[in-house]
Amino acid sequence: MLRTYRDTLSLLGPALPVLSFLGRLPTAMCQLGSVLLVAETSGSLATAGLAGGALAAGQTVAGPLLGRLADRRGQRGPVLAASLAVAALVLAAVADAPTGLLVPLALLAGATVPQIGPLARTRSVALARRAGADDRTVGTVLSFEGTLDEVSFVLGPALVGLAAALAHPGAALLGAALLLALCGTGFALHPTASAAAPPPDGTATRTGAAERTRLPGSAYALRVTMVLQGAMFGASQAGITALTAGLGAPAQAGLVYAAMGVMSAAVGLSLAALPAAIGLTLRWRAATAGLVLLSLPLLAVDSLTGLYVVVTVLGAAYAPHLITVFALTERSVPAGRLAESMAFLTSGIVGGQALALAFSGRLAEQHGAPAAFAVAVGAAAACAALSWTVRAGRAPRGAGVTPGGAAPSGSAARG
To answer: Domains in the chain, start-ordered, CATH in brackets?
Structure first.
């Protein structure tokens, strides 16, 4: 496993993982940061909720569009075109702008924050395929990228909370804007961006255009399972918040969620040690079974210690599911739609989380934390049902048409 990760880091180089990690932090910071900022400046939780929901909606809707643009025009343009909407939202909130202005600005901010995670996955996979890597190495690359996502979604909210405690919630969002300006631009201009650019050859371009018109049904099922995964996140967050508040320890909610993220990241890194004989379909089904079995104890937890144990153990099922779905998508969609498809998965998580958080939060207020946790268990069961009814096949790669124009390796043709 260590040798495989050394090969992965050698393939990506030292700068790209750092830039992509710091560049994806704003995605994890902006939603919570916008809620805290608007709540602080307006004094209204309802307005803060509208702003946070609008920002999530912008991320959900615009993410796949930016991914499609990256597939067709390369990655540099979409990332460099990210506007200063995040900074504008901060200035408007501090200036006590009305809700009618804050909500559209939040929507614009969400829509213009580039989803570095999906773009980094696409670029890393393209680099691996161009180097003739086999499926095992590509799987390791996806595990590594998945771990960076997990860490960013743990560290991002923690940075927001720290900035809000030490200074002001606006400082967190300004920091996110600065990270976008510096690291997002660095990621966009990194020489490896050419690996995910559309091939200049006319024939390859025509083939890529044809590929964009075909998407297997399994790709849509994989998107649905990511929405359900996001729903698990949102419902779990609502239940954790409600339970810790009911136990008189509301400040522990973030730490409980962070413990889950740390466990998920650690297990995600360990996936590289799985034998190659264990196929992705079996991994998907095993991961969804784990989601169901490990989420059921949430319905009975009633103490802070029990919550820490149950939620941390549940984190062990999250990364295998997320990483496997990304790997299945990479295998099943045409190369000409990879960035778009990766962005759809991430947007599905954001959208599912936002919807479930709003719905489960209301349930938790009326019926307690178990009601919110029941939504998480139901989402897990739906994920399991999908994994047993859908089989993701391998997309034809045509005459070697991959991002960057490289032909896939011989081993990549095996299921």
So the answer is: 14-131+151-197 (1.20.1250.20), 215-393 (1.20.1250.20)
